[in-house]
Design a protein that fits this description.
Elements lengths: L7 E2 L3 E4 L3 E8 L3 E6 L8 E7 L6 E13 L5 E10 L1 H14 L1
Antiparallel strand pairs: 1-3, 2-3, 2-5, 3-4, 4-7, 5-6, 6-7
Length: 101
Amino acid sequence: MIHRAPRIPIDVEVNCDGNKFVYSKNISESGIALISDTEFSSGQFIQLKFILPGYDNEVQAHGKVARTAAVSDNFFEIGVSFWDIEEDDKILLENFFKQQK
């Protein structure tokens, strides 16, 4: 059985690769689900930048697309695993999750 980290619904704007803006659906300590009008390829690496609700500092992380699924004719849900994230950003995420419990 695969253990999945608890997911928290969030709706924030996410900058992907410096020029593509998408929106988040939910987040866990291991990744983020995005809603996009562009399909991403499984295995694709992307740069993510976003601000968590209630915080001022931007989280920056590299992610790897784990899955892509069409949710309508024009939108896709993109599951992204956090791949490389700075220690300060990890701490920011950990604090965010502690506050949500």
